[in-house]
Amino acid sequence: DALTREALQDLLLRLLSSGGPLTTVLVTHSIEEAVYLGTKVLLMTPHSGKIARVFENPDLRGAAYRESESFFTRCAEVRRAMELEERV
Predict the structure, then answer these.
(1) What is the pLDDT of residues 33-69, one digit of tens each?
(2) Residue 85 to residue 88: CA distance in whole angstroms
(3) What is the dihedral sign for C-alpha 73, 7, 44, 56?
(4) Confidence of residue 16 (pLDDT cuts 50, 70, 90)
């Protein structure tokens, strides 16, 4: 369910912030999950799987981010890019 998923996302962020340098790759079809968890969000092409665009996401890393204007703006930006990529 949605609340459990959000709790697991918050746990992952706490684990990532508690140690030293760590690189994690998460593959998801959820725009909100990608924006909430990723310092960089990579948009891939629908069929060839190539990287179409990279979104820097410097504002994340806090529970308040999920409800911030910055979060909603970044999600909308990724969604628009996905829609444009599907038209190609």
Answers:
(1) 999 999 899 999 888 889 999 999 887 667 789 999 9
(2) 5
(3) positive
(4) confident
pLDDT of residue 20: 65
CB 75, CB 41: distance < 8 Å: no
Long-range CB contacts for residues 42-50, cutoff 8 Å, separation at least 24? 43/78, 43/81, 43/82, 43/85, 45/85, 45/88, 46/85, 46/86
- CA 71 to chain CA centroid, Å, is 10
**Distance from C-alpha of 82 to C-alpha of 84, rounded to nearest angstrom:** 5
pLDDT of residue 19: 74
The bridge status of strand 40-44 relative to strand 51-56 is antiparallel
